[in-house]
What we know:
It is a single chain. The chain has 119 residues and is α+β, with helices and mostly antiparallel strands. Helices cover 24% and strands 24% of the residues. The strands form two sheets. A four-stranded mixed sheet has the order 4-3-5-6, covered by helices on one side. The chain has a two-stranded antiparallel ribbon with strand order 1-2. A hairpin with a 4-residue loop joins strand 5 (57-62) and strand 6 (67-71). The chain is elongated and about 70 Å long. Keywords: Mitochondrion, Ribonucleoprotein, Ribosomal protein. It is found in: Mitochondrion. Residues 18-91 form the Ribosomal protein/NADH dehydrogenase domain.
Amino acid sequence: MALRGAWQFQKLVVSYCNWGGSSRGIRAFMESELPALIEKNPQLEVATELSRGQHPYLKGIYRNRNERVVCVKNMDPEQVLLNATRLRNSLGRKVVKLRTRHVTKHPSVQGTWTTAVKF
């Protein structure tokens, strides 16, 4: 995703095993879907890592120096492409848990409104 006109996703690292069965889908992804992904996204740098005996994963590296790792063990090439697209479309920010269901600058003094009001 672009923030102020600059893509935040810099590099996609594809780690796989050339022998293991859990890497079958990512090997098919690299043959069929990855060239089209690189062609559609010229701003994206793609690196492949051969790590024998390990499960496959996708690692996204962002401009703000954050990394996201997604395990793609036993996934089809379409599912791997979906995960790579999700990595590309995210900003790379850390996930923040909200304390309440609503966010406001001026919280109510009386409390949150509910439908179960008892008089």
